[in-house]
Design brief:
- The chain is globular.
- The strands form two sheets. The chain has a four-stranded mixed β-sheet with strand order 1-4-3-2, covered by helices on one side. Strands 5-8-7-6 form a four-stranded mixed β-sheet, covered by helices on one side.
- Helices cover 20% and strands 43% of the residues.
- It has 115 residues and is α/β, with parallel strands linked by helices.
- The relative contact order is 0.20.
- It comes from [Mycobacterium] manitobense.
Length: 115
Amino acid sequence: MALAVEMITFDCDDPDGLAQWWAQAVDGEVTPFAPGEFVVVIRPDGPRLGFQRVPDPTPGKNRVHLDFTAGDMEAEVARLVGLGATETGRNNFGDEFRWVTLADPAGNAFCVAEG
């Protein structure tokens, strides 16, 4: 029996606000299972994103992060920054693979690569 990725869950202090931001970023729909405590973003494809209130979100660098691809990486990065993301770095493996590291409004890292 194979496992299926159902949801990726973020610990945070404002699940409603962070879910709203990610819904805009990934063209998803916000579904508040327990408003203010546990909110889910349902995406057109791929796993759902969950946001749960915790008393003390983990400080420091994320141990897990989301990676996205975009046909026009620069346009997508500009769109996400316009929504409130912060660009934190640019990386590459030679000329063949480039990506931009960003942080959502709560500081969670994610990457956008050319795709």
